[in-house]
Fold:
Amino acid sequence: MTTTTPDSFSSAPPEIVKKGPVAWARKNLFSDWFNSTLTVVIGLVLGLGGYRLLTWAFSQAEWIVIPNNIGLFMTGTYPDELYWRIWVMLAVMCTLAGLSWGILARNLPTLFSRNVLIGIGVVCAFFVLFPPTRPSSKILLPMVAIVAAAAWVGRVAGKAKPGLGKWISLGWGLSYLLAIWLVGGSIGLESVSTNDWGGLVLTLIAAVSGIALCFPLGLIMALGRRSSLPVVKWLATAYIEVVRGVPLVAFLFMGQVMIPLFLPEGARPDRVLRAIIALALFSAAYLAENVRAGLQAIPRGQQEAAMSMGMSTPLTLVLIILPQALKIAIPAIVGQFISLFQDTTLLAIVGLAELLGIGRSVLANPTYLGRYAEVYLFLGVIYWIFCYSMSLGSRKVEEMLNTDL
Structure:
């Protein structure tokens, strides 16, 4: 038998790993001739497109349509004398956002790092220099200060009481009720008709309300479809398949016409409420399938192990199965939430002046005929900001819940 010793192997020096943007570009963009050619071609196309876009934006576009109608884009025909309600609602949201930021970042060595300070400075400069926000900069700049101050308070309080995050979640839920009260009035405030609701405010109210309603309904439908009771399973399956086979536009029209038919005579829900119910019922069917996929991904051994420990079926479902299933389904669930937010653009079809509907109304003004590119680009940026924020938030949640590493 031939034996080998370490000396018999040829020892090679360890590979030197280079870091930096140049090394990253060589590895990912110019690793061979094909990648290099593809990188150059795509770079030229993007550069030419960016050059033309900037040329149009700074020399040809007439952006006056945006600052002249910024109030319509944000709140529709909401009364000017009641704008203070919108600002109070925004201040509450900024406070909760800052507290959430501080609590989540309580274990970081520095809360206001250099990049964070640069970002805050860019936001402040944008509010001062951007024409649509310049008139309101005296209010928007204090909002940024509220976020920063609340973040510092949340960081200090989060270190002192680690369980404070649960109360912040409750605060976000209560802030929704506060927003509805402020925008709509009643109970001590002058009522504002939903005919005056519009723009971004209506879009956010419809989207948040639809998400809040469709999530528990979709969860129930997903559990019903996996139920061992035939009647429950058939009813849930029928609901999911029927709703998924009908386009949202038809569902919105049916919601406006048919919902009052199921209520007592004379009871006619507000049209905004009817649209929100239609959105929630429609999205719940798709959300149910996302949750069901997460439930099917859980090994059966999880349930058997819980039963062997004497846990009842409801406790097993709530404490063992659902947390794992929802964790797996987070990307699909957030994707459905983003789709619901984008689907609010169809509310204009049933006569609601949401953000995109306001844009169409502005373009119908003879003064701004032909300014489609400016208006739709502005609206597209707004939608992208909210959709990307939801996507970024979901990735952060996935990182926090990742227990596989």
The mean pLDDT is 85. The longest helix spans residues 372-401.
